[in-house]
Design a protein that fits this description.
The protein is α+β, with helices and mostly antiparallel strands. It is built from 5 helices and 4 strands. The chain has a single domain, classed as Jann2411-like fold, CATH 1.10.3300. Helices cover about 35% and strands about 15% of the residues. The radius of gyration is 15 Å and the shape is globular. Bound molecules: zinc ion.
């Protein structure tokens, strides 16, 4: 089995960071649709329908950032664009729900091993 490619998280920020902030609120219905990927895509497309792509110079270089009507850098528009790019690059498997509270989160670990939201993530201590 080929190891899964690690998506270029850093190159997707700041839009991906915005998506992470909104997974539990403005974009939660997208994650709640999973594992139905077509329904999740339809919900994400509904959000994207009110946005327009803009080529924007960011700290990571030139990126396509989605803006709301009128060119506003609305966080939901930016987040939806970042999430769409992530899914196009890496699929839906990094969008998860916490095993404790079911809150949506983005798994950025290399092995896609994360199971809990930030609040319920166990502390990893180095061996004594
Ligand atoms: Zn949780």
């Amino acid at each position: 089995m080929r190891p899964a490619a690690v998506p270029p998280f850093r190159t997707l920020d700041p839009a991906l960071a915005a998506a992470e902030r909104l997974l539990a609120t403005g974009l939660s219905t997208v994650v709640y649709a999973l594992p139905d990927e077509l329904l999740a895509a339809a919900r994400l497309n509904t959000v994207l329908a009110g946005t327009s792509p803009r080529l924007t110079l960011t700290r990571q270089g030139w990126q396509v950032i989605h803006v709301a009507a009128g060119g506003r850098a609305d966080e939901l528009a930016v987040a939806a664009g970042g999430l769409a790019t992530l899914v196009a690059v890496a699929g839906w498997s990094r969008l998860k729900r916490c095993e404790t509270c079911a809150e949506p989160f983005l798994d950025r670990t290399n092995g896609r091993t994360r199971r809990w939201c930030t609040r319920h993530r166990p502390n990893h201590r180095p061996p004594a």
